[in-house]
Amino acid sequence: MTFKNHYRTLGVSPHTSSDAIKKEFRKLALQYHPDMNAGNEFATLRFRELQEAYETLSHPSKRAKYHYEWKLHFPHTDVNTDWEHTPLTILNEGIQLNRQIAAMDIFRMNKEAIFIRVKKILSEPNINLLLQHKDAMLNQKLIIQLLSASSELPFKYVDSIAASLKMLAGTDDAAIKMITDFVKTAQQKNYWEKFYPLIVLLITLAICVLIYGASR
């Protein structure tokens, strides 16, 4: 099971007081509440994520247990200083996003919001951090997760995501090939979606002509 970064979910630091955590939760909960986002599965999942984070961080004993579990998952990091600055937490964020998307209805997902999440994971500070650690295997795992998470996004987002992923890939030929194949597949899908109505129209006209010719 992926270890979740509840502090990142709420957008607060481990030093934030309980009252400040409560205030931030209320603000985000109002923004993503299902009643305010009817039919938006992404908002519903985000709201559940916020609830889980708040439930853990708002109780002193649960918060202390969470810090202990953090040390078990990331023994070489300190939740109080490195909570948003480790390659593993960045990878976990990609895995978590991908799992959320897998649980959504493809026809109702908020694709712009997903694009924003992907680009946030691929922010310049995150990419720089990942490249500094020089863990090609971890970077490749993150690339795979984000390619999967981006597979249903409109083509207009593809170039931006691909450019960031190529920066992360560096000289990893296998990763670069995955990204290139992703762009090609997205292009083909875009062409098909663009010309499909025309193809259907031409086939329909051809059938009508055949029927008319056969009836004479």
Structural category: mainly alpha
Order of helices and strands: HHHHHHHHHHH
Give the integer mean of the pLDDT values. 86
User: How many runs of DSSP E, i.e. beta strands?
Assistant: 0
Strand content: under 5%
**What's the helix count?**
11
The biggest beta sheet is recorded as: none
What fraction, in percent, of the residue positions are helical?
over 70%
* Overall structural domain count: 1
Please state the CA-atom Rg, rounded to the nearest Å.
22 Å
Shape summary:
flat
Distance between the termini: 68 Å
Question: Mind explaining what this structure looks like?
Answer:
The termini are far apart. The chain has helices at residues 6-10, 18-32, 41-57, 60-73, 79-82, 87-102, 111-121, 124-133, 136-149, 158-169, 173-215. Helices cover 75% and strands 0% of the residues. The model has no long low-confidence stretch (mean pLDDT 86). It has one domain (6-188). The protein is built from 11 helices and no strands. With 216 residues, it is mainly alpha-helical. Helix 2 runs antiparallel to helix 3.
Question: SSE layout and pairings?
Answer:
Elements: H1 6-10, H2 18-32, H3 41-57, H4 60-73, H5 79-82, H6 87-102, H7 111-121, H8 124-133, H9 136-149, H10 158-169, H11 173-215
Helix pairs in contact: 2-3, 6-7, 6-9, 9-11, 10-11
